[in-house]
Amino acid sequence: MKKPEHEFFSVTDVAFTVCPGDDPKITERILAKDPETGVATRILRYEPGADSTPMGVQKHDFWEEVYILEGSFTDLTLGRTFTAGMYACRPPGMPHGPWRTDEGVVTFEVRYPA
């Protein structure tokens, strides 16, 4: 199976839902998802004060590209803050996070199989 076909639509028609990890300050809008692989295109939102430390360092078995649309967050492992306009491309297995934000952050992410 592949991600579904969509013509243009308003992303605001897609509700934010709480991400895996159950922190209500970390939510996502799933724009397209392959139900077999779980890879997705999404908008990720960390509200001000969100902290993903309980989820630990993340590693995925898929490619992940991330563009920061608004705000900033800090990778606590690296001790570096990343801001709006910055981009990351992570191959499968690349460690990242956990993250914390004071002001909040919104990212656009595309995930695809290895």
From TrEMBL:
Annotated InterPro entries: ChrR-like_cupin_dom, RmlC-like_jellyroll, RmlC_Cupin_sf
Alphabetical list of Pfam families matching this protein: Cupin_7 (PF12973)
Domain of life the protein comes from: Bacteria
Domain ChrR-like cupin: 25-108
Name this polypeptide is given: Cupin domain-containing protein
Naturally occurring in which organism (per UniProt): Amycolatopsis halotolerans
